[in-house]
Amino acid sequence: MAAVAVALLVVGSATPHRARALTSVTRFDTNDPRLIAKGEYLAKAGDCAGCHTAPPGGPSGKETLHPAAPFAGGLPMGSPFGTIWSSNITPDPDAGIGRYSYDDFERAVREGVAPGNRRLYPAMPYPSFAKINDDDLHALYAYFMHGVAPVRQPAPRTHLPFPFNQRWAMMFWRAAFAPDDVFVPHATRSAQWNRGAYLVQSLGHCGACHTPRGPAYEERGYDEHARLYLTGGTNDHWFAPNLTGDPGAGLGRFSEQEIASFLKQGHGGGLVTFGSMVQVVEDSTQYLSDDDLRAIAHYLKSLPPAAPNGHFDGQSQAAVRTVRALDTGNAELPGAGLYQGLCARCHKADGMGEPLKYPRLAGNPAVLAAHVDSLVRLLVEGGEAPHTQSGPEAKKMPSFAGKLTDTEMARVLTFVRNAWGNDAAPVTSREVAQVRHSLGK
Ligand code: HEC
Ligand code: HEC
Ligand code: HEC
Protein backbone atom coordinates (compact mmCIF):
# COMPACT_ATOMS: atom_id res chain seq x y z
CA MET A 1 0.00 0.00 0.00
CA ALA A 2 2.76 2.41 0.95
CA ALA A 3 4.40 1.77 -2.40
CA VAL A 4 1.25 2.84 -4.18
CA ALA A 5 0.86 5.99 -2.13
CA VAL A 6 4.46 6.88 -2.91
CA ALA A 7 3.95 6.14 -6.58
CA LEU A 8 0.91 8.40 -6.62
CA LEU A 9 2.89 11.20 -5.00
CA VAL A 10 5.79 10.79 -7.38
CA VAL A 11 3.66 10.81 -10.46
CA GLY A 12 1.71 13.76 -9.08
CA SER A 13 4.43 15.95 -10.50
CA ALA A 14 4.31 14.34 -13.94
CA THR A 15 3.06 16.44 -16.79
CA PRO A 16 -0.72 16.53 -16.91
CA HIS A 17 -2.43 14.43 -19.49
CA ARG A 18 -2.92 15.93 -22.88
CA ALA A 19 -6.60 16.82 -23.04
CA ARG A 20 -8.54 14.81 -25.57
CA ALA A 21 -10.15 17.15 -28.09
CA LEU A 22 -13.85 17.13 -27.33
CA THR A 23 -15.62 15.42 -30.17
CA SER A 24 -17.90 17.88 -31.85
CA VAL A 25 -21.52 16.79 -31.82
CA THR A 26 -21.33 13.22 -33.08
CA ARG A 27 -24.13 12.25 -35.38
CA PHE A 28 -25.22 8.65 -35.31
CA ASP A 29 -28.63 7.14 -34.79
CA THR A 30 -28.74 5.45 -31.38
CA ASN A 31 -32.02 3.78 -32.36
CA ASP A 32 -30.57 2.00 -35.39
CA PRO A 33 -31.27 -1.72 -34.75
CA ARG A 34 -28.11 -2.76 -36.60
CA LEU A 35 -26.00 -0.48 -34.43
CA ILE A 36 -27.69 -1.83 -31.29
CA ALA A 37 -27.05 -5.42 -32.39
CA LYS A 38 -23.41 -4.61 -33.08
CA GLY A 39 -23.18 -3.03 -29.63
CA GLU A 40 -24.59 -6.17 -28.05
CA TYR A 41 -21.85 -8.25 -29.69
CA LEU A 42 -19.15 -5.80 -28.62
CA ALA A 43 -20.48 -5.79 -25.05
CA LYS A 44 -19.85 -9.55 -25.09
CA ALA A 45 -16.34 -9.01 -26.44
CA GLY A 46 -15.75 -6.51 -23.59
CA ASP A 47 -17.37 -8.79 -21.00
CA CYS A 48 -19.33 -5.81 -19.63
CA ALA A 49 -21.93 -8.18 -18.15
CA GLY A 50 -19.29 -10.31 -16.44
CA CYS A 51 -18.27 -7.45 -14.16
CA HIS A 52 -21.47 -5.43 -14.11
CA THR A 53 -23.82 -8.21 -12.97
CA ALA A 54 -24.18 -9.24 -9.32
CA PRO A 55 -23.43 -12.85 -8.36
CA PRO A 56 -26.43 -15.12 -7.74
CA GLY A 57 -28.08 -13.98 -4.51
CA GLY A 58 -27.42 -10.31 -5.21
CA PRO A 59 -24.60 -8.15 -3.86
CA SER A 60 -25.01 -9.56 -0.33
CA GLY A 61 -25.22 -13.14 -1.61
CA LYS A 62 -28.27 -13.68 0.61
CA GLU A 63 -31.11 -12.15 -1.38
CA THR A 64 -32.88 -15.25 -2.61
CA LEU A 65 -35.21 -13.29 -4.85
CA HIS A 66 -32.59 -11.06 -6.40
CA PRO A 67 -32.70 -11.81 -10.12
CA ALA A 68 -29.11 -10.61 -10.64
CA ALA A 69 -30.31 -8.41 -13.49
CA PRO A 70 -27.70 -8.11 -16.22
CA PHE A 71 -25.66 -4.87 -16.07
CA ALA A 72 -27.29 -3.72 -12.80
CA GLY A 73 -23.90 -3.79 -11.03
CA GLY A 74 -23.18 -5.00 -7.52
CA LEU A 75 -20.36 -7.45 -8.21
CA PRO A 76 -17.80 -7.13 -5.40
CA MET A 77 -14.29 -7.03 -6.83
CA GLY A 78 -11.37 -7.74 -4.53
CA SER A 79 -8.41 -5.36 -5.00
CA PRO A 80 -5.29 -5.02 -2.85
CA PHE A 81 -6.92 -1.84 -1.49
CA GLY A 82 -10.32 -3.24 -0.52
CA THR A 83 -13.61 -4.18 -2.19
CA ILE A 84 -14.72 -2.21 -5.23
CA TRP A 85 -18.35 -2.58 -6.34
CA SER A 86 -19.22 -2.44 -10.02
CA SER A 87 -21.75 0.20 -11.11
CA ASN A 88 -25.27 -0.17 -12.46
CA ILE A 89 -24.81 0.55 -16.19
CA THR A 90 -28.42 -0.04 -17.25
CA PRO A 91 -30.18 3.00 -18.76
CA ASP A 92 -32.10 3.80 -15.57
CA PRO A 93 -31.80 7.61 -15.17
CA ASP A 94 -31.14 7.49 -11.41
CA ALA A 95 -29.59 4.14 -10.50
CA GLY A 96 -27.83 3.66 -13.85
CA ILE A 97 -26.34 5.61 -16.74
CA GLY A 98 -29.61 6.73 -18.38
CA ARG A 99 -28.61 10.39 -18.15
CA TYR A 100 -25.23 9.84 -19.81
CA SER A 101 -24.62 11.77 -23.05
CA TYR A 102 -22.42 10.05 -25.62
CA ASP A 103 -19.49 12.20 -24.44
CA ASP A 104 -20.11 11.11 -20.84
CA PHE A 105 -20.08 7.49 -21.98
CA GLU A 106 -16.91 7.97 -23.98
CA ARG A 107 -15.08 9.59 -21.05
CA ALA A 108 -16.20 6.90 -18.59
CA VAL A 109 -15.29 3.96 -20.83
CA ARG A 110 -12.06 5.27 -22.37
CA GLU A 111 -10.73 7.56 -19.67
CA GLY A 112 -12.30 6.29 -16.47
CA VAL A 113 -13.99 9.60 -15.66
CA ALA A 114 -17.71 9.47 -14.79
CA PRO A 115 -19.91 12.60 -14.90
CA GLY A 116 -19.08 15.11 -12.16
CA ASN A 117 -15.39 14.31 -12.71
CA ARG A 118 -15.71 11.17 -10.59
CA ARG A 119 -12.51 9.22 -11.30
CA LEU A 120 -13.06 5.49 -11.61
CA TYR A 121 -10.77 2.86 -10.15
CA PRO A 122 -8.91 0.79 -12.73
CA ALA A 123 -10.91 -2.27 -11.61
CA MET A 124 -12.90 -0.94 -14.58
CA PRO A 125 -10.44 -1.79 -17.39
CA TYR A 126 -10.41 1.67 -19.01
CA PRO A 127 -6.64 1.48 -19.62
CA SER A 128 -7.54 -1.17 -22.24
CA PHE A 129 -10.86 0.32 -23.29
CA ALA A 130 -9.02 3.54 -24.22
CA LYS A 131 -8.14 1.72 -27.44
CA ILE A 132 -11.77 1.04 -28.50
CA ASN A 133 -12.40 2.85 -31.80
CA ASP A 134 -15.15 5.43 -32.34
CA ASP A 135 -17.42 3.21 -34.46
CA ASP A 136 -17.44 0.53 -31.79
CA LEU A 137 -18.03 3.04 -29.02
CA HIS A 138 -21.05 4.44 -30.89
CA ALA A 139 -22.49 0.94 -31.15
CA LEU A 140 -21.90 0.25 -27.45
CA TYR A 141 -23.62 3.51 -26.51
CA ALA A 142 -26.63 2.71 -28.70
CA TYR A 143 -26.88 -0.73 -27.09
CA PHE A 144 -26.65 0.53 -23.51
CA MET A 145 -29.22 3.26 -24.15
CA HIS A 146 -31.74 1.19 -26.12
CA GLY A 147 -30.88 -2.51 -25.98
CA VAL A 148 -30.60 -3.00 -22.22
CA ALA A 149 -33.53 -3.02 -19.77
CA PRO A 150 -33.32 -0.29 -17.10
CA VAL A 151 -32.99 -1.53 -13.51
CA ARG A 152 -33.88 0.89 -10.70
CA GLN A 153 -31.79 -0.76 -8.00
CA PRO A 154 -28.64 1.26 -7.24
CA ALA A 155 -25.37 -0.68 -6.87
CA PRO A 156 -23.66 -0.64 -3.44
CA ARG A 157 -21.19 2.21 -2.96
CA THR A 158 -17.46 1.59 -2.77
CA HIS A 159 -15.71 2.72 0.42
CA LEU A 160 -11.96 2.24 0.31
CA PRO A 161 -9.72 3.32 3.20
CA PHE A 162 -7.63 6.49 2.96
CA PRO A 163 -5.70 7.28 0.76
CA PHE A 164 -7.44 5.09 -1.78
CA ASN A 165 -10.79 6.81 -1.25
CA GLN A 166 -9.27 9.92 -2.83
CA ARG A 167 -10.68 9.33 -6.28
CA TRP A 168 -9.11 12.50 -7.69
CA ALA A 169 -5.70 10.90 -7.22
CA MET A 170 -6.61 8.43 -9.96
CA MET A 171 -6.04 11.36 -12.31
CA PHE A 172 -2.30 11.11 -11.67
CA TRP A 173 -2.38 7.33 -11.77
CA ARG A 174 -3.96 7.43 -15.19
CA ALA A 175 -1.59 10.13 -16.44
CA ALA A 176 1.39 8.04 -15.43
CA PHE A 177 0.27 4.56 -16.38
CA ALA A 178 -2.69 4.31 -18.72
CA PRO A 179 -2.43 4.74 -22.47
CA ASP A 180 -4.94 7.12 -24.01
CA ASP A 181 -4.78 6.45 -27.70
CA VAL A 182 -7.28 4.60 -29.79
CA PHE A 183 -5.81 1.44 -31.40
CA VAL A 184 -3.86 2.24 -34.55
CA PRO A 185 -3.63 -0.63 -37.06
CA HIS A 186 -0.10 -1.59 -38.11
CA ALA A 187 0.32 -1.02 -41.83
CA THR A 188 2.85 -3.86 -42.18
CA ARG A 189 0.56 -6.47 -40.58
CA SER A 190 -2.36 -8.40 -42.05
CA ALA A 191 -6.00 -7.45 -41.45
CA GLN A 192 -6.39 -10.63 -39.38
CA TRP A 193 -3.43 -9.76 -37.16
CA ASN A 194 -4.76 -6.23 -36.65
CA ARG A 195 -8.24 -7.47 -35.79
CA GLY A 196 -6.79 -9.89 -33.23
CA ALA A 197 -4.49 -7.27 -31.72
CA TYR A 198 -7.41 -4.84 -31.46
CA LEU A 199 -9.70 -7.33 -29.71
CA VAL A 200 -7.01 -8.56 -27.30
CA GLN A 201 -5.73 -5.10 -26.38
CA SER A 202 -8.98 -3.13 -26.26
CA LEU A 203 -12.33 -4.83 -25.61
CA GLY A 204 -10.90 -8.21 -24.56
CA HIS A 205 -8.66 -6.53 -21.93
CA CYS A 206 -6.76 -9.83 -21.76
CA GLY A 207 -3.77 -8.01 -20.25
CA ALA A 208 -5.80 -7.06 -17.17
CA CYS A 209 -5.19 -10.62 -16.01
CA HIS A 210 -2.42 -11.95 -18.27
CA THR A 211 0.07 -9.06 -17.87
CA PRO A 212 2.01 -8.76 -14.60
CA ARG A 213 1.31 -5.64 -12.55
CA GLY A 214 3.78 -3.17 -11.12
CA PRO A 215 3.94 -1.60 -7.64
CA ALA A 216 1.11 0.86 -8.36
CA TYR A 217 -1.12 -1.93 -9.67
CA GLU A 218 -0.42 -0.79 -13.23
CA GLU A 219 -0.16 -3.34 -16.02
CA ARG A 220 3.44 -3.65 -17.22
CA GLY A 221 2.58 -2.77 -20.80
CA TYR A 222 -0.44 -2.60 -23.06
CA ASP A 223 0.83 -3.98 -26.37
CA GLU A 224 3.44 -6.27 -27.90
CA HIS A 225 6.15 -3.61 -27.69
CA ALA A 226 6.34 -4.05 -23.92
CA ARG A 227 8.66 -6.84 -22.80
CA LEU A 228 6.31 -8.19 -20.13
CA TYR A 229 3.04 -7.81 -22.06
CA LEU A 230 0.88 -10.96 -21.60
CA THR A 231 3.68 -12.86 -19.88
CA GLY A 232 1.39 -13.85 -16.99
CA GLY A 233 -0.15 -12.20 -13.95
CA THR A 234 -1.82 -13.09 -10.66
CA ASN A 235 -5.18 -11.66 -9.67
CA ASP A 236 -7.17 -12.88 -6.72
CA HIS A 237 -4.90 -15.97 -6.42
CA TRP A 238 -5.52 -17.08 -9.98
CA PHE A 239 -2.40 -17.02 -12.12
CA ALA A 240 -3.26 -16.18 -15.72
CA PRO A 241 -0.50 -17.89 -17.74
CA ASN A 242 2.02 -16.59 -20.22
CA LEU A 243 0.33 -16.18 -23.62
CA THR A 244 3.54 -15.60 -25.60
CA GLY A 245 5.28 -18.27 -27.65
CA ASP A 246 7.29 -19.79 -24.77
CA PRO A 247 7.21 -23.56 -25.47
CA GLY A 248 7.25 -24.38 -21.74
CA ALA A 249 4.63 -22.42 -19.81
CA GLY A 250 3.39 -20.37 -22.80
CA LEU A 251 1.39 -21.12 -25.95
CA GLY A 252 4.39 -22.17 -28.07
CA ARG A 253 3.24 -25.80 -28.53
CA PHE A 254 -0.43 -24.97 -29.25
CA SER A 255 -1.90 -24.20 -32.66
CA GLU A 256 -4.18 -21.30 -33.61
CA GLN A 257 -7.03 -23.76 -33.99
CA GLU A 258 -6.48 -25.19 -30.51
CA ILE A 259 -6.39 -21.71 -28.94
CA ALA A 260 -9.54 -20.63 -30.81
CA SER A 261 -11.39 -23.72 -29.66
CA PHE A 262 -10.19 -23.20 -26.05
CA LEU A 263 -11.80 -19.74 -26.19
CA LYS A 264 -15.00 -20.99 -27.83
CA GLN A 265 -15.67 -24.22 -25.90
CA GLY A 266 -13.30 -24.07 -22.96
CA HIS A 267 -11.49 -27.09 -24.44
CA GLY A 268 -8.54 -27.00 -26.82
CA GLY A 269 -5.33 -28.98 -27.32
CA GLY A 270 -6.24 -31.14 -24.31
CA LEU A 271 -6.48 -28.10 -21.99
CA VAL A 272 -9.63 -27.24 -20.06
CA THR A 273 -10.40 -23.71 -18.87
CA PHE A 274 -10.36 -23.28 -15.09
CA GLY A 275 -10.27 -20.54 -12.45
CA SER A 276 -11.15 -16.98 -13.43
CA MET A 277 -10.83 -17.87 -17.14
CA VAL A 278 -14.04 -19.92 -16.85
CA GLN A 279 -16.13 -16.77 -16.59
CA VAL A 280 -14.27 -15.13 -19.43
CA VAL A 281 -15.20 -18.04 -21.71
CA GLU A 282 -18.77 -18.31 -20.39
CA ASP A 283 -19.62 -14.60 -20.54
CA SER A 284 -17.46 -13.42 -23.38
CA THR A 285 -15.28 -15.44 -25.74
CA GLN A 286 -17.76 -18.28 -26.44
CA TYR A 287 -19.98 -15.71 -28.17
CA LEU A 288 -17.30 -14.37 -30.51
CA SER A 289 -17.43 -15.29 -34.19
CA ASP A 290 -15.04 -17.94 -35.45
CA ASP A 291 -13.26 -15.26 -37.50
CA ASP A 292 -12.69 -13.11 -34.43
CA LEU A 293 -11.46 -16.08 -32.38
CA ARG A 294 -9.05 -17.07 -35.15
CA ALA A 295 -7.83 -13.47 -35.30
CA ILE A 296 -7.19 -13.47 -31.53
CA ALA A 297 -5.32 -16.78 -31.76
CA HIS A 298 -3.35 -15.54 -34.78
CA TYR A 299 -2.28 -12.43 -32.86
CA LEU A 300 -1.28 -14.43 -29.77
CA LYS A 301 0.77 -16.82 -31.91
CA SER A 302 2.68 -13.84 -33.32
CA LEU A 303 4.05 -12.95 -29.87
CA PRO A 304 7.66 -14.13 -29.59
CA PRO A 305 8.58 -16.27 -26.56
CA ALA A 306 9.17 -14.13 -23.47
CA ALA A 307 9.64 -14.80 -19.73
CA PRO A 308 10.29 -18.54 -20.32
CA ASN A 309 9.55 -21.02 -17.54
CA GLY A 310 9.47 -24.81 -17.34
CA HIS A 311 10.04 -27.39 -20.10
CA PHE A 312 8.19 -30.28 -21.62
CA ASP A 313 9.65 -33.22 -23.49
CA GLY A 314 7.18 -36.06 -23.87
CA GLN A 315 9.84 -38.35 -25.38
CA SER A 316 12.34 -38.00 -22.54
CA GLN A 317 13.62 -40.84 -20.34
CA ALA A 318 11.85 -39.26 -17.37
CA ALA A 319 8.55 -39.38 -19.25
CA VAL A 320 8.87 -43.11 -19.85
CA ARG A 321 9.95 -43.69 -16.25
CA THR A 322 6.88 -41.96 -14.77
CA VAL A 323 4.41 -44.00 -16.76
CA ARG A 324 6.22 -47.23 -15.90
CA ALA A 325 6.41 -46.33 -12.19
CA LEU A 326 2.67 -45.61 -12.05
CA ASP A 327 1.81 -48.70 -14.13
CA THR A 328 3.70 -51.13 -11.96
CA GLY A 329 2.52 -49.47 -8.77
CA ASN A 330 6.16 -48.84 -8.01
CA ALA A 331 5.41 -45.33 -6.89
CA GLU A 332 8.76 -44.38 -5.41
CA LEU A 333 8.55 -40.82 -6.74
CA PRO A 334 7.24 -38.56 -3.94
CA GLY A 335 3.62 -37.68 -4.69
CA ALA A 336 3.20 -40.50 -7.22
CA GLY A 337 1.14 -42.55 -4.79
CA LEU A 338 -1.17 -39.64 -4.10
CA TYR A 339 -1.54 -39.04 -7.83
CA GLN A 340 -2.31 -42.68 -8.50
CA GLY A 341 -4.88 -42.80 -5.72
CA LEU A 342 -6.61 -39.44 -6.15
CA CYS A 343 -5.99 -38.02 -9.61
CA ALA A 344 -5.26 -40.74 -12.16
CA ARG A 345 -8.92 -41.73 -12.39
CA CYS A 346 -9.55 -38.55 -14.38
CA HIS A 347 -6.15 -37.27 -15.51
CA LYS A 348 -4.90 -40.83 -16.34
CA ALA A 349 -1.62 -42.58 -15.60
CA ASP A 350 -0.03 -41.10 -18.72
CA GLY A 351 -1.15 -37.59 -17.64
CA MET A 352 -3.05 -37.11 -20.90
CA GLY A 353 -6.54 -36.76 -19.39
CA GLU A 354 -9.50 -37.52 -21.62
CA PRO A 355 -10.43 -35.41 -24.63
CA LEU A 356 -13.37 -33.02 -24.03
CA LYS A 357 -13.61 -34.24 -20.43
CA TYR A 358 -10.48 -34.01 -18.32
CA PRO A 359 -7.43 -31.86 -19.07
CA ARG A 360 -4.02 -33.27 -19.80
CA LEU A 361 -1.45 -32.42 -17.16
CA ALA A 362 1.48 -33.61 -19.29
CA GLY A 363 2.78 -30.59 -21.21
CA ASN A 364 0.03 -28.35 -19.80
CA PRO A 365 1.43 -24.78 -19.69
CA ALA A 366 -0.66 -23.86 -16.63
CA VAL A 367 0.97 -26.79 -14.79
CA LEU A 368 4.46 -25.59 -15.80
CA ALA A 369 3.79 -21.95 -14.84
CA ALA A 370 6.21 -19.79 -12.87
CA HIS A 371 3.58 -19.12 -10.18
CA VAL A 372 1.65 -21.93 -8.58
CA ASP A 373 -1.21 -19.98 -6.96
CA SER A 374 -3.77 -21.31 -9.46
CA LEU A 375 -2.72 -24.91 -8.93
CA VAL A 376 -3.04 -24.65 -5.17
CA ARG A 377 -6.31 -22.74 -5.37
CA LEU A 378 -7.78 -25.34 -7.73
CA LEU A 379 -6.77 -28.23 -5.44
CA VAL A 380 -8.24 -26.44 -2.44
CA GLU A 381 -11.52 -25.31 -4.02
CA GLY A 382 -12.04 -27.76 -6.85
CA GLY A 383 -13.46 -26.42 -10.10
CA GLU A 384 -15.88 -26.85 -12.92
CA ALA A 385 -15.24 -26.50 -16.63
CA PRO A 386 -17.19 -23.74 -18.40
CA HIS A 387 -20.75 -24.25 -19.60
CA THR A 388 -20.87 -23.15 -23.23
CA GLN A 389 -23.30 -23.30 -26.14
CA SER A 390 -21.07 -25.40 -28.36
CA GLY A 391 -18.79 -27.22 -25.92
CA PRO A 392 -19.24 -30.59 -24.20
CA GLU A 393 -20.93 -31.17 -20.86
CA ALA A 394 -18.96 -29.49 -18.04
CA LYS A 395 -17.03 -31.88 -15.78
CA LYS A 396 -15.97 -31.11 -12.22
CA MET A 397 -12.70 -31.42 -10.39
CA PRO A 398 -13.28 -32.24 -6.70
CA SER A 399 -11.93 -30.12 -3.83
CA PHE A 400 -9.12 -31.67 -1.80
CA ALA A 401 -9.20 -29.12 1.04
CA GLY A 402 -10.39 -31.59 3.67
CA LYS A 403 -8.40 -34.53 2.29
CA LEU A 404 -4.84 -33.35 1.82
CA THR A 405 -2.43 -31.57 4.15
CA ASP A 406 -0.27 -28.70 2.86
CA THR A 407 2.66 -31.11 2.56
CA GLU A 408 0.63 -33.63 0.58
CA MET A 409 -0.63 -30.92 -1.77
CA ALA A 410 2.93 -29.73 -2.30
CA ARG A 411 4.02 -33.34 -3.04
CA VAL A 412 1.33 -34.14 -5.57
CA LEU A 413 1.81 -30.81 -7.34
CA THR A 414 5.56 -31.28 -7.41
CA PHE A 415 4.90 -34.68 -8.92
CA VAL A 416 2.65 -33.40 -11.73
CA ARG A 417 5.12 -30.60 -12.48
CA ASN A 418 7.88 -33.20 -13.00
CA ALA A 419 6.14 -36.26 -14.44
CA TRP A 420 5.70 -37.37 -18.07
CA GLY A 421 8.46 -35.05 -19.32
CA ASN A 422 7.18 -32.00 -17.43
CA ASP A 423 10.01 -30.06 -15.85
CA ALA A 424 9.22 -27.16 -13.51
CA ALA A 425 10.33 -26.02 -10.07
CA PRO A 426 9.00 -28.02 -7.09
CA VAL A 427 6.15 -26.67 -4.95
CA THR A 428 6.93 -26.22 -1.24
CA SER A 429 4.49 -26.75 1.62
CA ARG A 430 5.16 -23.14 2.58
CA GLU A 431 3.85 -21.91 -0.76
CA VAL A 432 0.76 -24.07 -0.32
CA ALA A 433 0.26 -22.80 3.24
CA GLN A 434 0.54 -19.17 2.09
CA VAL A 435 -2.10 -19.51 -0.61
CA ARG A 436 -4.43 -21.45 1.69
CA HIS A 437 -3.96 -18.88 4.41
CA SER A 438 -4.89 -15.95 2.16
CA LEU A 439 -7.86 -17.88 0.78
CA GLY A 440 -8.92 -18.66 4.35
CA LYS A 441 -9.33 -22.35 3.46
C1 HEC B 1 -13.13 -6.23 -15.07
C2 HEC B 1 -14.39 -5.68 -14.66
C3 HEC B 1 -15.13 -4.71 -15.56
C4 HEC B 1 -15.41 -4.84 -16.90
C5 HEC B 1 -15.00 -5.97 -17.84
C6 HEC B 1 -16.18 -3.68 -17.26
N1 HEC B 1 -16.36 -2.87 -16.19
FE1 HEC B 1 -17.30 -1.05 -16.19
N2 HEC B 1 -16.80 -0.80 -14.22
C7 HEC B 1 -16.22 -1.76 -13.42
C8 HEC B 1 -16.14 -1.26 -12.06
C9 HEC B 1 -15.55 -2.00 -10.86
C10 HEC B 1 -16.70 0.04 -12.08
C11 HEC B 1 -16.82 1.01 -10.89
C12 HEC B 1 -15.49 1.66 -10.69
C13 HEC B 1 -15.48 2.68 -9.59
O1 HEC B 1 -16.42 2.72 -8.78
O2 HEC B 1 -14.52 3.45 -9.53
C14 HEC B 1 -17.11 0.30 -13.45
C15 HEC B 1 -17.69 1.48 -13.90
C16 HEC B 1 -18.22 1.67 -15.17
C17 HEC B 1 -18.91 2.87 -15.60
C18 HEC B 1 -19.15 4.11 -14.76
C19 HEC B 1 -20.55 4.08 -14.23
C20 HEC B 1 -20.80 5.09 -13.15
O3 HEC B 1 -21.31 6.16 -13.46
O4 HEC B 1 -20.48 4.76 -12.00
C21 HEC B 1 -19.31 2.65 -16.91
C22 HEC B 1 -20.07 3.60 -17.80
C23 HEC B 1 -18.86 1.33 -17.27
N3 HEC B 1 -18.20 0.76 -16.20
C24 HEC B 1 -19.10 0.76 -18.50
C25 HEC B 1 -18.56 -0.49 -18.90
C26 HEC B 1 -18.73 -1.04 -20.22
C27 HEC B 1 -19.52 -0.39 -21.35
C28 HEC B 1 -18.06 -2.23 -20.23
C29 HEC B 1 -17.84 -3.20 -21.39
C30 HEC B 1 -17.31 -2.62 -22.62
C31 HEC B 1 -17.47 -2.40 -18.91
N4 HEC B 1 -17.82 -1.34 -18.13
C32 HEC B 1 -16.69 -3.49 -18.53
C33 HEC B 1 -15.72 -2.98 -13.82
C34 HEC B 1 -15.75 -3.47 -15.13
C1 HEC C 1 -10.30 -12.42 -15.28
C2 HEC C 1 -8.96 -12.74 -15.67
C3 HEC C 1 -8.71 -13.17 -17.10
C4 HEC C 1 -9.00 -12.48 -18.25
C5 HEC C 1 -9.68 -11.13 -18.40
C6 HEC C 1 -8.51 -13.29 -19.33
N1 HEC C 1 -7.93 -14.43 -18.85
FE1 HEC C 1 -7.18 -15.96 -19.97
N2 HEC C 1 -6.77 -17.02 -18.27
C7 HEC C 1 -6.99 -16.57 -16.98
C8 HEC C 1 -6.57 -17.62 -16.05
C9 HEC C 1 -6.64 -17.53 -14.54
C10 HEC C 1 -6.10 -18.69 -16.83
C11 HEC C 1 -5.52 -20.02 -16.30
C12 HEC C 1 -6.58 -21.09 -16.25
C13 HEC C 1 -6.79 -21.77 -17.56
O1 HEC C 1 -5.81 -22.20 -18.20
O2 HEC C 1 -7.96 -21.86 -17.97
C14 HEC C 1 -6.25 -18.29 -18.23
C15 HEC C 1 -5.90 -19.07 -19.32
C16 HEC C 1 -5.93 -18.66 -20.64
C17 HEC C 1 -5.46 -19.46 -21.76
C18 HEC C 1 -4.84 -20.86 -21.65
C19 HEC C 1 -3.40 -20.66 -21.36
C20 HEC C 1 -2.69 -21.87 -20.85
O3 HEC C 1 -1.47 -21.84 -20.97
O4 HEC C 1 -3.32 -22.79 -20.32
C21 HEC C 1 -5.64 -18.71 -22.89
C22 HEC C 1 -5.29 -19.10 -24.32
C23 HEC C 1 -6.24 -17.45 -22.48
N3 HEC C 1 -6.41 -17.46 -21.11
C24 HEC C 1 -6.55 -16.44 -23.34
C25 HEC C 1 -7.16 -15.25 -22.94
C26 HEC C 1 -7.57 -14.22 -23.86
C27 HEC C 1 -7.36 -14.23 -25.36
C28 HEC C 1 -8.16 -13.24 -23.12
C29 HEC C 1 -8.81 -11.96 -23.58
C30 HEC C 1 -9.86 -12.11 -24.55
C31 HEC C 1 -8.11 -13.66 -21.72
N4 HEC C 1 -7.50 -14.89 -21.65
C32 HEC C 1 -8.62 -12.93 -20.66
C33 HEC C 1 -7.55 -15.37 -16.61
C34 HEC C 1 -8.04 -14.40 -17.48
C1 HEC D 1 -13.27 -36.45 -10.93
C2 HEC D 1 -12.23 -36.12 -11.89
C3 HEC D 1 -11.00 -35.40 -11.38
C4 HEC D 1 -10.14 -35.78 -10.36
C5 HEC D 1 -10.26 -36.96 -9.44
C6 HEC D 1 -9.07 -34.79 -10.36
N1 HEC D 1 -9.28 -33.86 -11.32
FE1 HEC D 1 -8.06 -32.33 -11.81
N2 HEC D 1 -9.41 -31.64 -13.14
C7 HEC D 1 -10.63 -32.25 -13.42
C8 HEC D 1 -11.41 -31.35 -14.26
C9 HEC D 1 -12.81 -31.60 -14.80
C10 HEC D 1 -10.62 -30.21 -14.47
C11 HEC D 1 -11.01 -28.93 -15.18
C12 HEC D 1 -11.48 -28.05 -14.02
C13 HEC D 1 -12.10 -26.74 -14.36
O1 HEC D 1 -12.31 -26.50 -15.52
O2 HEC D 1 -12.35 -25.96 -13.41
C14 HEC D 1 -9.36 -30.44 -13.77
C15 HEC D 1 -8.29 -29.56 -13.79
C16 HEC D 1 -7.07 -29.80 -13.20
C17 HEC D 1 -5.90 -28.96 -13.35
C18 HEC D 1 -5.81 -27.72 -14.23
C19 HEC D 1 -5.44 -28.11 -15.64
C20 HEC D 1 -6.29 -27.52 -16.72
O3 HEC D 1 -5.77 -27.25 -17.82
O4 HEC D 1 -7.51 -27.37 -16.53
C21 HEC D 1 -4.93 -29.50 -12.55
C22 HEC D 1 -3.51 -28.96 -12.37
C23 HEC D 1 -5.50 -30.65 -11.91
N3 HEC D 1 -6.79 -30.81 -12.33
C24 HEC D 1 -4.82 -31.46 -11.01
C25 HEC D 1 -5.41 -32.50 -10.31
C26 HEC D 1 -4.76 -33.23 -9.26
C27 HEC D 1 -3.34 -32.96 -8.79
C28 HEC D 1 -5.66 -34.16 -8.82
C29 HEC D 1 -5.49 -35.15 -7.69
C30 HEC D 1 -5.08 -34.61 -6.41
C31 HEC D 1 -6.86 -34.02 -9.62
N4 HEC D 1 -6.68 -33.00 -10.50
C32 HEC D 1 -7.98 -34.82 -9.49
C33 HEC D 1 -11.06 -33.46 -12.97
C34 HEC D 1 -10.46 -34.19 -11.96
UniProtKB/TrEMBL annotation:
Alphabetized UniProt keyword annotations: Cell membrane, Heme, Iron, Membrane, Metal-binding, Repeat, Signal
Main subcellular location: membrane
Entry keyword annotation includes DNA-binding: no
Coiled-coil blocks: none
InterPro entries: Cyt_c-like_dom, Cyt_c-like_dom_sf, Cytochrome_c-type_DH, Membr-bd_ADH_cyt_c
TM stretches of this protein: none
Pfam families for the chain: Cytochrom_C (PF00034)
Annotated Cytochrome c domain residues: 34-148, 191-304, 330-420
Subcellular location as annotated: Cell membrane
Domain of life: Bacteria
Keyword Kinase: no
Gene3D superfamilies, per the entry: Cytochrome c-like domain
Protein name: Cytochrome c
Source species of the chain: Paraburkholderia bengalensis
Origin organism lineage: Bacteria, Pseudomonadati, Pseudomonadota, Betaproteobacteria, Burkholderiales
